């Protein structure tokens, strides 16, 4: 290990045979990162600054004027905004559900149930499908006279045949179920990859100790998966906040009424439907802050664990 | 022994149940697309009694589906090629170069990976309107390229770091230039990494909806997904027709998954533990 490091340093400090004498060596690496920096400045740097600036302005793309905090006060006075933000927060409930289902699937796959390669293929399949295609498909399956309710009625569960997308109380749980359906495969594959990289001795030792199945999962497997579970959970929390437009847009379009609107849909409707770029930018700025908070908490949790486990590992 | 057999059975039952739940929507798309609208109204769940390809014919002729396909292919090819080249060059420097700001750039890419695209859409839209590039494939190619870069740089840098440094040293001794090393030594070694990246990025661009919806509002410029979502509203009384369009829209990614499963798994699990 020390040897490899020594070699790396040697490589980076030795002058390259072809380097031109007058150019400082390190500077020429900037030629390789320059295109990336330019594109990132255009696609991230510019919009991130502008979106905050627009949140204090009103008008159309050709003429924006300063209005101070007016956009924020209109947003905070808009019931649809509060519905949207509440729906995003409700969708957070899907995260623990996804973690548990993905864990169970990953453990079963890892324990090599017969046909596990086929099952692994199937488990991941929904994740690669387009959210647009599956959203449209589920909107048909969940219709009042759709396949789900027909099946429920045919097995005598007709009392459960509800108006899944037409009832304001059921619409968000229905959308959430589609999201869970698509995303558990991602979690299962992440967890499985981590399980397969664990040293076999850890699991064998637990079996020799005579630990039961649940006990083994709880006290041996789960701690080993902790960091990947955290990674999956934070990724999905961010998704629930900022990457559900596609589902909502095709499944309900935000309806009935505005009951299934989410922040992204609210931003989109305000900007491109009502032409209110300022209000949309104000919500986008809030969304940026929320995402930042989530990431900050995640890094805090990670560094705290690393510093506490550094002592414990030895 | 007996409890073990029960355990095995329970697991098989759960996995079979999972398979049915995971595959049913795909099965539904396929069987519905083969029904006439008349048959669908009386037979939603069963297999078609008189399978027909009429929906596919209609989807390909009465609707500009082939044009949308072509648009999506151009967007995907353009942004994936551009982002791979730009990220490949950057990852080469970030994996092996020694220069001030290297760590900052690496961390910057990780941070940008979590910025929700919806935040960037409004200023980019305003910019494209002002420079007169709205409703052009070019504006969307540039936007997608930028959005693909943080993940691509992150993925390629971690793959590039796995290449043993001895290879570089011997190449340097042989008088290979820095770009020569990249072109002749690194590139052949990172082909699997590049395939992984391309597969994951193609999937992302192919399925993207929000930006396609906002930046390409002309009917002839739509992507397959934005076209399909519009088409869903316009033909909402003819679900078999829409299912035929949906099947065609997802077919390329499903085929890609069938033949490149290991690349998907590798690319999408590369983010863990970093």
Characterization of this structure:
- The complex is a heterodimer of chains A (314) and B (274).
- Chain A has 314 residues and is mainly alpha-helical.
- Helices cover 73% and strands 3% of the residues of chain A.
- Chain A has a two-stranded antiparallel sheet with strand order 1-2.
- In chain A, helix 3 (70-76) crosses helix 14.
- Chain B is 77% helix and 0% strand.
- The relative contact order of chain B is 0.13.
- The model of chain B has no long low-confidence stretch (mean pLDDT 88).
- At the A-B interface, helix 1, helix 2, helix 5, helix 6 and helix 7 of A face helix 1, helix 4, helix 5, helix 6 and helix 7 of B.
As a percent range, the share of strand residues of chain B is: under 5%
What sort of overall outline of chain A do the alpha carbons produce when their principal axes are compared? Answer: globular
> In percent, how helical is the residue content of chain A?
over 70%
Helix segment count of chain B?
Answer: 13
Computed CA radius of gyration of chain B, to the nearest angstrom: 23 Å
Q: Which class best fits the helix and strand makeup of chain A?
A: mainly alpha
Number of strands of chain B: 0
**Mean of the pLDDT scores of chain B?**
88
Pick out the low-confidence regions of chain A: 1-23
Low-confidence stretches of chain B: none
Apparent shape of chain B: globular
Described by strand count, sense and barrel closure, the largest sheet of chain A is: 2 strands, antiparallel
Element order of chain B: H for helix, E for strand: HHHHHHHHHHHHH
The ordered string of helix (H) and strand (E) elements of chain A is HHEEHHHHHHHHHHHH
Measured distance between first and last alpha carbons of chain B: 42 Å
Distance between the termini of chain A: 19 Å
């Amino acid at each position: 290990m020390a040897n490899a490091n020594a070699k790396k340093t040697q490589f980076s400090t030795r002058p390259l045979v072809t380097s031109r004498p007058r150019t400082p060596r390190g500077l020429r690496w900037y030629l390789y990162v320059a295109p990336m920096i330019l594109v990132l400045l255009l696609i991230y740097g510019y919009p991130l600054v502008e979106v905050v600036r627009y949140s204090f302005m009103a008008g159309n793309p050709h003429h924006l004027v300063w209005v101070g905090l007016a956009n924020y006060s209109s947003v905070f006075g808009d019931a649809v905004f509060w519905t949207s933000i509440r729906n995003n927060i409700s969708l957070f409930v899907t995260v623990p559900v996804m973690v548990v289902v993905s864990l169970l699937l990953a453990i079963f796959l890892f324990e090599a149930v017969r046909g596990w390669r086929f099952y692994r293929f199937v488990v991941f399949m929904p994740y690669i499908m387009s959210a647009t295609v599956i959203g449209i498909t589920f909107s048909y399956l969940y219709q009042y006279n759709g396949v789900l309710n027909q099946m429920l009625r045919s097995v005598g569960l007709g009392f459960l045949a509800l108006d899944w997308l037409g009832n304001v109380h059921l619409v968000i749980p229905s959308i959430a179920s589609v999201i869970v359906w698509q995303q558990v495969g991602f979690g299962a594959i992440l967890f499985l990859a981590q399980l397969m990289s664990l040293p076999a001795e850890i699991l064998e030792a637990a079996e020799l100790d005579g630990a039961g199945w649940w006990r083994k999962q709880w006290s041996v497997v789960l701690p080993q998966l902790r960091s990947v579970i955290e990674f999956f959970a934070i990724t999905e929390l961010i998704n629930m906040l900022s990457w559900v437009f596609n589902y909502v847009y095709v499944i309900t379009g935000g309806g009935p009424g505005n009951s299934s609107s989410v922040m992204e849909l609210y931003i989109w409707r305000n900007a491109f439907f009502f032409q209110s770029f300022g209000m949309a930018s104000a919500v986008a700025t809030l969304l940026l802050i929320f995402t930042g908070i989530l990431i900050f908490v995640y890094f805090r949790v990670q560094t705290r664990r690393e510093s506490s486990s550094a002592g414990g590992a030895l | 022994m007996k409890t073990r057999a029960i355990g095995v059975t329970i697991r098989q039952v759960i996995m079979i149940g999972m398979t049915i739940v995971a595959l049913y929507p795909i099965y539904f798309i396929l069987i519905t697309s083969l029904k006439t609208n008349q048959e669908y109204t009386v037979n939603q769940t069963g297999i078609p009694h008189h399978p027909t390809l009429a929906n596919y014919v209609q989807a390909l002729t009465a609707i500009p589906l082939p044009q949308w396909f072509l648009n999506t292919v151009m967007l995907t090819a353009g942004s994936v090629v551009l982002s791979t080249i730009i990220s490949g060059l950057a990852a080469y420097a970030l994996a092996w170069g020694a220069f001030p700001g290297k760590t900052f750039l690496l961390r910057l890419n990780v941070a940008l990976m979590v910025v929700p695209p919806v935040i960037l859409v409004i200023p980019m839209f305003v910019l494209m309107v002002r420079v007169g590039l709205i409703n052009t494939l070019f504006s969307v190619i540039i936007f997608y390229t930028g959005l693909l870069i943080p993940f691509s740089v992150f993925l390629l840098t971690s793959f590039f770091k796995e290449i043993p440094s001895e290879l570089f040293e011997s190449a340097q001794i042989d008088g290979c230039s820095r770009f020569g090393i990249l072109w002749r030594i690194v590139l052949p070694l990172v082909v699997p990494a590049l395939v992984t990246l391309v597969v994951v990025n193609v999937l992302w661009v192919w399925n993207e909806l929000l930006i396609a919806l906002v930046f390409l509002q002309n009917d002839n410029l739509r992507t397959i997904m934005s076209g399909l979502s519009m088409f869903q509203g316009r033909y909402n009384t003819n679900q078999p027709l829409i299912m035929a369009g949906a099947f065609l829209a997802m077919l390329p990614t499903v085929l890609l998954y069938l033949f490149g499963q290991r690349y998907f798994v590798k690319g999408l699990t590369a983010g863990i533990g970093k």
